Structures
1.
Amino acid sequence: MKLPEPSSDALALVHKLSVTYEPDSGPPVRALDEASLEIQPGELVGILGESGSGKSTLGAALIRLLPSDARYDSGSVRFRGSDLLALSEPELRQIRGAEVALIPQDPALALNPVIKVGDQIAEVLHAHVRMTRRDGRLSVEALLAEVGFDQPRQIYHAYPHQLSGGQRQRVVIAQAMACRPALVIADEPTSKLDASLQAEILSLMRKIGQRHQTAFVLISHDPTVLAGFVDRIAVMYAGRVVEEGRTEDILRRPLHPYTQALVRLIGRYFPVAGTRTRFAAIEGEPPESTHRGVGCPFAPRCAEKMQVCTERDLQETRPQPSHRVSCFKYGN
Amino acid sequence: MATDTSDGKAVAQPVLRVSGLSKTYRRKGAGWQRSEVIVAAQDVAIEIFAGQTLALVGRSGSGKSTVARCVTRLEKPNSGQIWLEGTDIAQLDSRELRSLRPKLQMVFQDAATSMNPRFTAAEVIEEPLLIQKQADKSARRARAKKLMQEVGLSPQWADRSAMEFSGGQKQRLAIARALVLEPKLLVLDEALSGLDLSTEAQIANLLLDLQASHSLTYLLISHDLALVARLAETIAVMAKGKIVEQGPAAQVIANASHSETSALVASARAAQANLAALGVAL
């Protein structure tokens, strides 16, 4: 398949995308509300937000991989300039796996329990690249070695249940990297792992990404996970990107009160042992459905709420070319 | 609880005292293979005084959950004593345990898996009262609603299906259920794991508040040293079924003497290093 020439140099581009989930039971839930995000080739981007902020939906939407009960209401999704929302399923399948890949949160669910892990990686290769079975096996062994297995041949023949959680996540990373994709979406790839394994898996992903100049979108609720990994962070709340900027700006000088509150949560990594001091917390929960209305969706939980916050329409402002924020504190 | 001594001074007695606790599992060999004995916990000793928190930390497979399962008597230990206030519960049978259950409750990770999916929020909280044949219907409902309030859930949601709640709300529900029998000791097995940082902070604060208002004693099981460090006075580090280091939280972290403790401290500091590299300080 030939893709049309890109309209900009962005690798992936989500523009003012709105998405609604329509489950069989229960009311429809608006998960994305005019969310925009752009990924350049080779770039490492983080999406930060609480559960229910829409970050997983945005990540999956980047490669049009939303579940079947999701409805794309408006906006566009482009990959290398081509409109993903206009492509057919067979056309999409050529892109997925080969050009884009997803590393899910729980590798135990991503792997088939009755197929050798090596064969599961080979399957991805054979779907996109013409090669002999032997070459496929050798490529898989090379991939397994690259993700840090000392004995790739043995691991090839292992079943998922014979591997530890950390080993399974390595297998899933090898699988995602099999066709040298241009973009990998990693959705909370370490949140099910022990603290000691988290750092290991993250640095492995970063190393591999840099070696192959892969663009990564890392989705997390934890600013510290993103701190060591990404160049840029988009902060999500109520289905929108409420702030976006370079990682050091977002973490050192966050503008949006929501981002400020999220960054304060990292205090949990600096405990004063044995003191039983309360944690910095954001009270309340994000709204369940996020239909754009008048005012700021964070206002009910915001410590700096002003009268205007519930009265007027919220616009995005750019205090710096590389920094955007949606908050009445910064002009509107 | 206090015991009078001859000189009239009250000497505190621990709410929980575990000594010499050992638990082995037998893994059946496949086909011709011999079955294998796995020592999950060996000679474990801890004690927790009223209103205090002890954190049992270790990696997955270190045996910390085995200790939790023995203390809550979901498993019977092979040997050792588990003194819950004045009673050794290590070898009690299920009938004898039932009368002691109200003193000892637990909360797990993924609270939802321990709830009947057909139950409403109130029914989830009331279930232990029903099992213990305590209180009549209206009194049970009143207790459930009061507890919902205490754990930060609107009592108006009493009749909502428990499955409709968010992850953090389900954890609050599990805590409310654990409190309904007014226990002395709560065993929290990775009860804060798998939550996002925002929910984790809320639930951690809730546990601190409830500990003060209900004079609760906590046994905290976790792989996350940074998290438990500020919740617990005492930290016990487990590796390969044994406690390898135990002491006041600040001391264990500052002067880690065992390699396992050092590894846990190092991974807790990795996050700090990431932030420091960007010039983020707190």
2.
Amino acid sequence: MSSPAHISDAKEEIISRVADVLCQERATATNIESVVYKAAVDRDAVIAKFGSMHGLLLEMVSNLSDELIQPLEQQSMDRTMRDVLIEFGIQLAHTYATSHLIALYRITLSEATRHSGIGRDFFERGPARLTACLARYFEFSVRRFGKVRFSDARRLADNFLYLLGDTLEFSDWMTTTRVATAKDCRDAVIEAVDLFYYGLVKGEQ
Amino acid sequence: MTALISKLLLVSKLTSRRHPENEFHVTDVPDDLAIEIDHNDSPISKQPAEWLVCFVPGLKKQWWHRFTHPRHKHVFALKMVGDDQWVLVEPWWTRIMVTTLRTDEAVKFLRWGAAGSILRVTERIPGAGSQARGWANCAVLISLMLGRSYWTWTPHGLYKRLSAEDGVERVELDVFLEEKLTSTMHVMSEKALSDVPTLIKLSPEAAFMEFGRRISKVMFSSSSFSFYRFAVSEAPRFPAAAGAYFSHGPRQAVDVAKALISHFCASGRFHECNRERASRAFLSMLRGNLFQEIALGCRTEPDEKDLDLRIKSVVEFFLRGANDFVKLVETHEIEESVQPRQPEIGAREQFSPADIRLPVILPVQQRSTRRLMPVERNVIRVLGHELKTAGHEA
């Protein structure tokens, strides 16, 4: 019988191999089964470890979300909100630009037509989770100064998340193959955080 | 015999009593319905429609495939009935599937078609087919649907007969989809963005509110989601068609947003910013989680009232940022002396209180008014603190 650590290692190995193929084929991958096949991973092993192909895909989404929310989870008192938001934004931009997230999204969107429920699960583990974490962070930022609960945190989080970048919406289909430089990412994130702080209209500060 | 004669007389009396207009009377059918038919005995008249007839290989192995053409083992047909509406007719072994599809769904069938051959065929009305053809396999049924009288029982046989007809064209799917997406997105963009230049006469709030409404109306329509799903999931297979979607759809909206932002920057009402990024950010916020939820099939389109509230919130945020919230947090961060936001501010503490030449200290790219404001606030705080300390010491 396999130990929990052994199972975890096996899962990580599968995820890592599938992620590598997705990164190589982020602009062309449209089917998780073919990606698993190209990664030379045994289909039965995927079923045994993740329950289904969808289970594998969703666990990969959860792992990416775990990494993304780290700056928000460390609710330290000695960092400004601006620093935290910039760190979160850079992490997000980097993930969009270099990880397999785009490929996972594309596969999910194609699968969603078949009403398998994978669309909802992807949304819950991806965008909805990031929004909830951001909202919690905004509430924390207000609460740390002893203020009452901030009621509009979720809407603010939704706006900020999408202000940070629209790569996930593919508004520019070339983003699937474009690699942004680290400086581009940083500049874009700082500009987005500035917009979050002050808006575009003059004389509002 | 007498009874028979009287019956015949009765029929003759009834017949003679019929009004001349009722010569087409059918028993048990109201006269007004029977009269309202066209020359093909149909209650309505329709122009012959164009069908995309797809001759395809099998998706799963079947025992009879060995007897058929390698790429033409099955046939079905699709026709467009609106910008985002298709009708599919696909004979199965057990039924005939007749259903409507969105474009993103229809493309899955068309891709299957492209694995074989797709012909553009105009149906014939009233046609020359016959129900008495016998074996109702896919080729026979599609031939009958098109009004053809061909005596062929295989998809490939039908393909050969149709290909030989004048006016029947072979369809190249990538070209067809690119043309379709270009024309449809062009119409959609025109509808939403045509008189946008008038928006520059409005205040920033009113202009972006109106722009947001127009874009959202298109963006959250069911056809928009269908084209979006197509463009994202099929981009690797049909890059030109996906490119047509983005360049004739979302790109047009970005350009209009950019023009609005440029106008308000030029008139001094907006801070200088990267206009491309700001435009994309505005449209991205308009989409937000709501768009993803719908695209991923988690919920249906929102009603107009919900959408309006959402647009209002986005416009407010875009123009003024999270102003009250930020002020609240910033004030306390400054009071509690949380780390300075920019290293320049920390360095500033080393200068004499009289030196307020921060614009010189800051790198050129950080000298926008917006970037200087928080810096100046911090300088004032530092100077104030130093003056206060100096006062106490005195």
